[in-house]
Amino acid sequence: MNETRSRTALVTGASTGIGRATALALARAGFDLALADLDANWLTDVAAEAQGRKVVPLALELRSEDSIEQAVTQAADALGAIDLLVNNAGRPLQKPATEVTWAEWNDVIDINLKGSFFLSAAFARHCRSHGRGGAVVSLASTHGLTGIAGRSVYGISKGGIIQMTRMLAIEWAPLGIRVNAVAPTTVLTPSREKLLSEPEAARACSRASRSAASRRWTRSPRRFAISRAMLPLRLPARSWCLMAA
After folding, report:
1. Count of domains in the chain?
2. Tell me, what's the pLDDT at 219?
3. Confidence (pLDDT) at 213
4. Positive or negative: CA dihedral 148, 61, 13, 197
5. Fewest C-beta in 10 Å: which of 22, 48, 141, 172?
6. What residues make up the domain containing 66?
């Protein structure tokens, strides 16, 4: 990276949860930011919190090829070369496999896996066109590493993210693009607080987390802890890594 200019990052799903915490951690680390979510108006508060940094809010629909290409173009137009892509946006689904509809399957896979893949590819083309490397960090999940009832489609999508990370890391190494993933356990975010307040659901998440990480969690980590785990992955020394947090 050229250290004479501000480093830059594109973060998806940045209006809340892990995405918001990651965006603010990157701002504190000196990054200018392109923040993306379904509605750019959702990003007003987080943009205001990233004091002292340039922040560009973007509307992004990961199920749309045109929207993906437009988001990368807009980010580059506003910030110049983009150093880091954080694939955070995702859609959960808690439902027995026998009850999942075709539409629900397509929705989860299109957002969590297909959209992340094609956004990563657009980012790689951006890096290649500028003759420089970059870094991709994707949010996987311990649900992509182990089995848990009622989370089949979500787990499959996150397992796909893990394999995507391996494949792209190998393919893009000659371009100087580092590709990594973080696989958190169930994280205490606003969207998960209600789920974790239900005893049986909380026990199921705890069992899956212990199985994936081979250790006992006494409580769910908070989104700020996950964002701190992601920051080292932007550094050049990390060529490929899967971190189970």
Report:
1. 1
2. 43
3. 44
4. negative
5. 48
6. 7-244
Catalytically active residues, by annotation: 154
In a domain, 106, yes or no: yes
The model carries a pTM of 0.81
Burial call 68-77: b when 16+ CB within 10 Å, e when fewer: bebbbebbbe
78 Cα distance to chain centroid: 21
Q: Mean pLDDT for each 10-residue chunk of the chain (245 residues)?
A: 76 95 95 97 96 96 98 98 97 96 98 98 97 96 91 97 98 97 71 56 53 42 47 50 48
Query: What's 59's domain CATH number?
Result: 3.40.50.720
Q: Scan for tokens 């989860």, then name that residue.
A: 108
Q: How far is CA 216 from CA 143, 157, 168, 208, 225, in A?
A: 16, 25, 32, 10, 17
**Residue 2 belongs to some domain of the structure:** no
Q: How far apart are CA 67 and CA 167, in angstroms?
A: 24
**Residue at 203: amino acid letter:** R
What is the rounded end-to-end Cα distance, in angstroms, of the chain? 27
